[in-house]
Structures are given as C-alpha cells and as structure tokens.
Amino acid sequence: MTDQPSHGPPLPGGGDRSLLTHRQMLGGRLYVQTLVRLMVAGAIALLARLGEGDLLDPRAGGFLQVLALVIAAYDLAAFVLLRRYRLPEHSAEANALLQNTMWALVGLDYFALTAFVWVTGGSGSPLLPFYVTHAVLSQMLLSPRRGLTCVALAFVLVTALVVVEWSGAVPVFQALACPDAPHLDSLRSVLVVVAANAMLLGLTSFFVLDLSTRLRNREVQLHGVIAEATRLSELRKDFLRIAMHNLQSPIGAMTMQLENLRAGRNGPLTEPQVESVRRCLARVQGLSRFLKDLQMLALLDNKAIAAQHADVDIGPMLVALVEEYQDVAEARGVQLTADLPGQVPMVRGVERLLREAVVNFVTNAIKFTPGGGHVHVRAERHGDLLRIAVEDDGIGIAPEDQARLFQEFVRLGRQDPKTGSGLGLSIARRVAEAHGGRTRVWSEKGVGSIFTIELPVAAPAVQVAGPA
Predict the structure, then answer these.
(1) Is 427's pLDDT higher than 70?
(2) What CATH code would you report for 306-456?
C-alpha cells in the first residue's frame, strides 16, 4: 500500500496521507495528548494504590506502579520534544518528525495497554476492548500503512498474551472486578479468544480505514478546489484593476467632450441633438458610477484595510452628508433631515468607507421615495453599538425581496436597471462587516423602509497622567 491518495493532487511535503488539517495542528494535538497520557499514568498509579485487594489481584499493585512510571517516562520525553511544535506553522515544518513521534507513541501505548490488560485479568480483563479504541485512533491519526502496522501489532500482542497465559509461562492475575470472566482451560478456548479479537480488530480497521481514506481523498480534492478558486479570485481582482485603470481615462475624456457639446462650445446644437447628448452623458455618468462601485469592492477586498482604521467622528460626517445631498433630495421633491444626539460616540474605521455606506442608504431612500415624502437620518447608541439609521416613507420592499437586498448585483423589481449597478447595498454590507458591524433592514410595502448600519463604539482613549 502506497502513501499517496488515489485521487486528487499529491499532498504537499511528501507522501504522508494524514489529514491535511490534522497535519497543520499535529504538534498542538500531540502536545495535548502527552498531557492526557501523563494523567493516565497518574490514574494507573492511583488505581494501584487504592484498588489493591478490591478491584485488583493483590499481586498487581507493584506491576502497575512500574507501568505508571514507564508511561510517565516516555510521555515526559515526548512532552519536552513537542513543546516547540505546538503552533500550526511549526507543526507543518516538522511534519515528518511529528508523524514518527506519533507512530512511536501509539506503538508504546499498545505495549503499555498489553501490560495493563495482563495485570488486570489477561483474557478476562474488562480493559480488553481498549485495543479496539486504539485501533480506531491508529487509523485516524496515522497514514493507512502505519495504522495497519499498529493494528497488526495489537493483534500480535493480544495473541501473545492469550498464548502465554494459556501456557502458564507468565503469572495469571485474577480479574477480581469480573469474577465470572471466562478462563483459558483448553486450546479451543484459546483459538476462540484469538479469532474473536482478530475479527473485532480486523472489521474495525477495515471500516475505519475505508472512512479515513475517503475523508483524506475528499480533503485533498477540496484543497485543490480551494486553491483553484483562490487563483481565479486573484485573476478576477487583477482583471478588475486593469480594466478600471484603462477605462477611467477614456470615460473622463468622453464626459468632458459631452459636457462641452452640451454647453455649445463646439457650436450650437439643435434640440434633438441636445437631448441625444443628455442621454449619452447620463449613460457615461452611470458607467462612471459603476466603475466607482467596482473600485470600492476592490478596496474592501484588500486585507490591509484594517491597518487604516482610526477614530471617526460620525456626527459631523452625517451632518455634512445630509447638507451635501439636500439639492438631490429637493430636486425630487423629497425632504431630507437629520436627528443627531448632542454627543455621537466615535467609532474605529475608515471614514470614507463609512461615508460611502451611509451615502448608499441615503441615495437609495431618495430614489425610492415619491415627491412630498421624507427621508430621515439619525444616529443613536445601543450599548456598545452605534446605530446609524436612514428612514423613509417611500414605496417599501416586499418581504420576499428583503433577504436578497444586500447581495451583489441584485436589482429588485422596483428598480430601473439603467439607474444602478446593484452594488450599493452590498458595498454597505461589506463596509459594515469590515468594521466589525452589520447592516439590517425593516420595510413594509407602501409604508416605507428603515436601513441601519451598526458599528462597535470606539474604546475611550486612555489618559496618561504627566509628571507631577
């Protein structure tokens, strides 16, 4: 049996077929397992002291004390070795060493378990099923070849224990906790015990090996799909950056030329020509807004955005925003107002991103509020959150559409596809998430809507006292 999966790309770092996610955490898990084994050694020592004459054969105490010392010794050595490999990145670098260490520990555990079973009743010990538990762990934690080697070692040890017990080559300890346990009084009983354990270990190993192999192969395929998706995502980002860069200049030039035509700088235009220029200019401006939205999405994909966070004074920002969009609202016959408390708490973030998110709410509210309607911007603190709300008494949104509002490129039936890119609300959502917040909506058809963005309040600055 080879150590390469039958499907998917080869595993990085060699042919070991342990789970990839397990490989990344192998050092930390082994470190914890050594601590657990040390506690098991302590429990065995305590059992030897408290269980003698009650749960154990009177002769078993000394053997168990020695066994506890042996388990503690090899696990202490492993504990010291593994301390430096607890972090995932160190675990991946030392994968071969950690795999060999795990293999050695599992093998030593089988020998320790055999000794424990021997002194607690041998073939009649209530601890005999623990071989099955170790067989399952071997198949899940080790490569298939090493797992099967450990299972074979378990079978050899169980068989050897039964044979030497039957032959009388070693002392037989009575399992006082199970006085009715069967005894090896004939060769047939020996064969029955060996065959039963072989079947139990074999079937368990077969089913666990099949399951773990499928998991490993699927995980390799999943990592391949993730890698391909990551590559395509990077290609998409590169394409968007190049496309936006190459489109900005010609769009700016077209806008300037159309504005010149409309102003009559190249000679007077007829009324039909003026209307044509107006329509072209509207389309070019719409394309410019679309490029701006794409730029905003690209900016939000930048993981370095967190390094740009600073304290943002939301109050003045909202006041300036409302003043700026008064003309837009009045042109549509909509009243735009703000209601802000005397002291709006600060938030941590990037001001231009937060402003863009609120602008998308405000422009949407103005767009879908009929003439004579009202759009109201307010901010209020709720515990550790600052809630910015944009409320309108516009046409409202159907309940079945509200779940899709914040998805990218979503246009609802109420929207004219020529008037928007379907990115505004998704940008608002992603801005909120980039700042540790969220967006929400309440709406009723024919009544109006309330869009909110909730952001964590900035922690107050620590005042450092100067010298007296």
Answers:
(1) yes
(2) 3.30.565.10
